[in-house]
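Q: what sequence does this backbone want?
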């Protein structure tokens, strides 16, 4: 399922965050949130993921229950994505993974943010074969798709435009996280209480 909204529409943050929350609640119980911003500073059009990651890192810092990967200082890209996927699988227990990436599309969809259920396939518009990642993902359409000039298109995309889209996407994730993190914390509390009760029961037997 794909939910679309233009980054300039006033409803976008609330509309997409509600859709993200609905998807989270449909799934199994998750123990933490993981956000992965994909992209590099090599091309201005490819900085969307790192810009979002950096804003979220500043917003949440060391907040319990959420981990941020892919920032301007420590980008996640084609050369290290597979390693990160392996790391997440090893270090995070039942994570709900939100992936963020820029993409190219038809001219009349430029500026649209897409919330897509399921894993992201990074580098698809550039014909790169990279590992899938995410339970859900956000894509920002930053410029026109041109199969012969995609690298050039990304290179000449307005950085100011991409940065403005990043603000909106970061707001969507922040608003969602503010609702999801208390649920995750409450669930962790219940699990700890159940484990404690089971230990007591075992000691009596």
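A:
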């Amino acid at each position: 399922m794909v939910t679309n909204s233009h980054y300039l529409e006033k409803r976008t943050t609330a509309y997409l965050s509600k859709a993200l929350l609905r998807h989270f609640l449909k799934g199994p119980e998750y123990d933490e949130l993981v956000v992965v911003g994909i992209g590099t500073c090599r091309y201005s059009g490819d900085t969307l993921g790192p810009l979002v990651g950096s804003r979220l890192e500043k917003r949440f810092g060391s907040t319990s229950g959420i981990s941020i990967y892919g920032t301007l200082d420590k980008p996640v890209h084609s050369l290290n994505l597979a390693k990160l996927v392996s790391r997440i699988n090893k270090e995070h227990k039942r994570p709900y993974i939100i992936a963020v990436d820029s993409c190219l599309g038809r001219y009349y969809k430029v500026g649209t943010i897409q919330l897509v259920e399921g894993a992201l396939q990074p580098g698809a518009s550039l014909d790169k074969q990279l590992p899938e990642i995410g339970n859900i993902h956000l894509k920002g359409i930053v410029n026109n798709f041109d199969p012969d000039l995609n690298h050039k298109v990304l290179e000449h995309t307005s950085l100011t435009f991409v940065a403005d889209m990043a603000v909106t996407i970061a707001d969507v994730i922040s608003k969602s996280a503010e609702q999801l993190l208390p649920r995750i914390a409450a669930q962790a509390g219940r699990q700890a209480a159940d484990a404690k009760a089971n230990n007591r029961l075992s000691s009596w037997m």
